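hey so u asked for the seq, here:
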Amino acid sequence: MDKVVGTAREAVSDVPTGASLAVGGFGLNGVPNMLIQSLFERGVTGLSVVSNNCGAMESGLAVLLVAGRISRVTGSYVGANKEFARQYLAGELEVELIPQGTLAERLRAGGAGIPAFYTPAGVGTQVADGGLPWRYDGSGGVALASPPKEVREFDGTEYVLERGIRTDFALVRAAKGDRHGNLVFNKSTRNFNPLAAMAGRVTIAEVEELVEPGAIDPDAVHLPGIFVQRVVPLTPEQAADKKIEQRTVSVPGTRERVSG
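ran it, structure tokens below
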């Protein structure tokens, strides 16, 4: 089955207002920027996003965030995104912050058809006990807090119940993909992209290099095409447009490194 779609705009044409999205990427690495930009151009609003972070440097999901298109974020890292923090504290954005490993497993579990699982991460904290601020009231108070979760003991150790995540759509970026949707990710882009792809009921992948079926060694496939419904090939210029969040260089003749 040929899953290639001509343009990113066409690929996201049926994403409605209020949709839930699992979005791949780690920092600025492996972010499906073309698909996100196409959603922005369509004017879709009220999005519930599940992603490790919510973009930075006016890139990635920050494009939608700054425009007020995102209503809820489930993630594990705020980082240096000042607009994310401002909207959260002002009560404009609902935010569910969870441990990073738990987020990864919730996405994987949802994609694997596992409704919930137990993990020791978060036991004895507000992650399990409830009370984490999901939405502020804009005046410093908490308008909505997280509920308590079930905790059970197994072999003398307590574990908290976490639910798998399924979303309406998933947006991911791969280094290579074939027309059947089999994908290969490069280095740290593999952190969240395969997991986000698994969690989406409709998964759309933008690929830096499109190849024919059979060109990827089966042992090299990181995500089977069964999880992918649409493939968008990028132009060489789009594939090469990669931003750097923290540029670090070495001072000649020393071991000193400078970041900027």
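The longest helix spans residues 100-111. Residues 2 and 236 are 21 Å apart (CA to CA).
lmk if thats what u needed
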